[in-house]
Amino acid sequence: MMDQSMVLLNAQVQFLETKLAIVHIPLHLYSHFIQPILRLLTLSDSTDEVDGLPRRKWAYPNAFTNISVTTIECSVVCPRPLVDDLFRPLIERLDAKAKQAVIISNDDFVVIQVGGEGMEAGQRVLDLTAPLALAGISIFFITSYYSDFVLVPYNSKSTVISALEERGFAFEPVSNGHGANMTNVSSPLHSHNRNSSSSSSLDLQPPGTPPPATVAEWQTKTFSTLHRNDILPLVDEGLELRTCAGYRSDSPDIHDAIQLGIFKCLLTNPRFMSITLTQTDTVSLTLDQSLLCNFPSKGEGILLQNDQTYFAIVFDLRKLPEESTGIICGVAGRLLERLGDEGQGEGAFNMSYLSTARTGNVIVREDEVGEALEALLEEEALSVDNLDGGH
């Protein structure tokens, strides 16, 4: 069996050239933003060819967009010009209190894409993000049906490249000139033990403070901060999730049926729905299982999906400063470390990630959610002991 730390050697990794903004919309204001959200989903591109190839019907015009509605917020990630065109005019028309509640990120973000279908990409993303965390770079994670996306501040791009190159990644220009391919010459974890790497990928740092010097310090600081702000992992046992993707077809009927289904879901004020759109893959969805009824034959024929049911372990980060966003990877690393070695064999535990503007969501299989939650609550208890035992 291949060592889990070698998984990135076979992954397709690309640095996408795009400047993204992240928008936080409180749920009580969600209905006010339905129109710009739907307009964002229906962007058209008159270009007949992309990189010399015929443009596919299912391809999205922009490199990356994500729209997520969770139990806590609506979060939109898209190119900043679209935020300015579609969302900012509406924000300006809100009353003062509502206007203050909608937050647009000050920083622009760029995307690292790690290819790989399904929900099994946890270790691969941790391999990629460990050096970024140790370099103190703030990061977001979004997992789609096909790929994992790591969002890093655009202004930190050179630091990101340096941090990854120091761990064995090599960057090469893409032939189309729109980004840079990364090749893992030597996996970041290949020469390090599992415990030191898989728990290192956490970027929860108050502004102006240096990152912890060791993984142990980082872990302690993370959960101490969560405890100090009364942030606990929460699971809604009545919210069963599915992950799926649009069928790769140029048929206008299939494309329109998928789009109509998505519209119906969004117009019902969904409890949980994450939509990821790119130029290279069909639309990817992680959504409340009950929403599948909005697609013909419960998704058969137009949606690709597996038979797994998932649950989201949610961290509500609204109490933390904007700069502290990104806790999801560190928590996921802790879960891989703790559960991957307990009776199931190293790497047997898998998860996906969804970082939104103000939440961290660890998405795990139905049969593993109990163990995962127990592991996180145990870590919370340890952080309490550390707080009580020293000053």
From TrEMBL:
Segments of this protein annotated with the region Disordered: 181-213
Q: Which Pfam families match?
A: ACT_7
**Source organism per UniProt:** Aureobasidium subglaciale (strain EXF-2481) (Aureobasidium pullulans var. subglaciale)
Q: What is this protein called?
A: CASTOR ACT domain-containing protein
Q: Which InterPro entries match?
A: ACT-like_dom_sf, CASTOR_ACT_dom, CASTOR_mTORC1
Q: Quick one: a GO biological-process term for this protein? A: amino acid metabolic process
Residue ranges, compositional bias (Low complexity): 186-202
Q: Which SUPFAM superfamilies match?
A: ACT-like
Positions of the CASTOR ACT domain: 105-166
